[in-house]
Amino acid sequence: MTDLTADAQALAQASAQPGRNPAAPGGARTVASAVTPAVVARLAAGITTAGDPELVHTTAPLTGERLATLPQSSPADVEVAYELARRAQKNWAALPVRRRAAVLLRFHDLLLRRQDEILDLIQAETGKARLHAFEEVLGAALAARHYGRSAQRYLRDRRRGGALPVLTHTLEARRPKGVIGQISPWNYPLELSVGDALPAFVAGNAVVNKPDTQTALTALWARELLIEAGLPADLWQIVIGDGPVIGPAVVRHADYVSFTGSTRTGREVAQQAAARLVGASLELGGKNALLVLADADLDKAAEGAVRACFSSAGQLCISIERLLVHRSVADEFLARFAARTSALRLGGGLAYGADMGSLVSERQLETVTRHVEEAVKAGARVLAGGRARPDLGPLFFEPTILDGVTPEMAVCAEETFGPVVSIYRFDTEDEAVAAANSTSYGLNSSVWTRDQRRGRAIAARLHTGTVNINEAYAAAYGSVGSPMGGMGDSGLGRRHGSEGILRFTEAQTIASQRLLPIGPSLGMDDEKFAALFTTGLRALKALGFK
Ligand code: NAD
After folding, report:
1. Cα(184) to centroid of ligand 1, in Å?
2. Which atom of ligand 1 has the smallest separation from the CA of 486?
3. What pTM, to 2 d.p., does this model score?
4. Hey, whose CA ends up nearest to atom 15 of ligand 1?
5. Residue 148 sits in which domain range?
6. pLDDT tens across 501-517, in order?
7. Are 307 and 233 in the same domain?
8. Domain match, 267 and 290 both
9. Does residue 8 lie within any of the structural domains?
10. 542 located within any domain
11. Which residues fall within 8 angstroms of residue 459, CB to CB, at 6 or more apart?
12. Are 303 and 340 found together in one domain?
């Protein structure tokens, strides 16, 4: 790790400015009082960079004011990061799994104890409500506990059936890939940096992580905490810079790539990884649907739909942007859903209380505004929300429900990634399933019915990596022992469960042969060998060997 202390001191001068937070109640802590220049300088020292780096500024979405000034890594710095990580990985991989797992379990406890620090940072960098920032603490803690407790089981050598029963002794072993190149987005910066890094570490790897610059402080804080929990400092390198500039360098040196972000960038990353013949897991976008069946508990469905559509202001890959309602209950459901949506409290204080926070960037606000305005111009009706709220902060947009959306409107099929949901009505189950599946994406879906069996039958017909029955997204996402990811344009590979850790390993088969070789021997001619083995194969099948 490059020693940046001196640079960091200098950066601190230029960093966070005293800020105002109009959405915070009088006297409450502000972004500027929580993320001080000293905090920024301390965290910035964890970035792998050298010499006289170019600086980049980030802005607090809640106030529009300067949040941090950070040094950027160059492609050459990325190379250095890989060298440092590669060296550290050798010793780390030599430790028993249980020692590596203990670091995750200590991290779990530290995270819960120090959660207020990271909740402040997540809110400051993303503008989301504290409750939604807490979801990240929850997700990261669940992953830390799961892989801390289960890694030995996932990674242990497994006895497999040998080529010849008794005579061939076969083991399947799991070896770490080496150094994982991890590229992560801004929307769930704790969960999507640390949540994927933890299984990589416990499997014996190092990680070179490029978080989004906007949310770099969150990733840097998580790294600091993992080091406190016992992770060797060089094992997790964090590089900061423009995606198109240093992203390809991260992929160029990686032994495996773990990417989370848009489908467009995911395709580029996949092509680069394929050209190098290294594997990649890609967690990409979605246009997720929620189905309200005629027998659903409408109060619970309306409450769940609010969470599904507006958590993190809809900037959640698994959030719902299409709501399909059975025609017989549509009016009743919509009245409840719209009332709950209109009652949501928007706010940006660094405390619990707000139901929804701000968008993260001008780019997000522009997309959300464009999708809503175009749809309304083309005839869609606004059932709730529909406008930006500059009175609360520069990037607030109301939770919005649109009815009468038609296929030519961008909001119908494109991922908005904001607090906007469109309503569609259906008459039959087949119609609902066809509508839900009428997208190239396949990330998440949600089904509301009193009949669990029927819910599971519908789930089997939905083309999405996760299906939640009577829940928005948290039931499947929080089930960290089970895989999570996308079908179709929503990605490749899975996080969580066995796939979520085994992707960071190479399978190695070790077979030892005893007594009889698998070939003609002891003077046996080829024909006799073939005849003997033909008889043997028939016998093995007849005896039920697998
Ligand atoms: P993005 O693709 O623009 O950026 C993601 C990351 O890739 C950032 O760190 C960015 O700097 C980097 N990047 C950009 N260009 C690159 C390049 N050419 N090479 C390598 N890296 C590059 O996505 P975003 O707008 O930051 O994130 C939002 C998207 O992420 C949405 O589509 C959302 O659905 C998706 N997402 C998916 C999941 C999931 O688990 N499936 C989770 C969160 C977000």
Report:
1. 6
2. 41
3. 0.94
4. 243
5. 32-284+497-505
6. 999 999 999 999 999 89
7. no
8. no
9. no
10. no
11. 445, 447, 467, 469
12. yes
Looking at the structure, do residues 268 and 294 belong to the same domain, yes or no? no
Tell me which residue has its CA closest to atom 10 in ligand 1. Answer: 243
Domain harbouring 342, CATH code? 3.40.309.10
Cβ atoms of residues 321 and 329 within 8 Å: no
Instruction: Give 473-504 pLDDT, tens digit per residue.
Output: 999 999 999 999 999 999 999 999 999 999 99
Please give the pLDDT value at position 348.
Answer: 86
Q: Is the CB of 396 under 6 A from ligand 1?
A: no
Give the residues of the chain that fall short of pLDDT 70: 1-27
Q: Which candidate in 283, 321, 398, 415 is catalytic? A: 283
Give 167's DSSP letter: T
Q: Total structural domains in the chain?
A: 2
CB of 71 closer than 6 angstroms to any ligand 1 atom: no
Catalytic hit among 125, 135, 191, 317: 317
Three-state secondary-structure class, residue 420: strand
pLDDT at 1: 37
Q: Contact 61/35 with Cβ under 8 angstroms?
A: no
Residues 270 and 292 in one domain: no
Candidates 299, 281, 260; CA nearest to 497 is: 281
317 is catalytic: yes
Let me know whether 217 and 338 are in one domain: no
Which atom of ligand 1 has the smallest separation from the CA of 491?
Answer: 41
Q: Cα of 418 to ligand 1 centre, how many Å?
A: 15
- For 440-452, the DSSP string reads S--SEEEEE-S-H
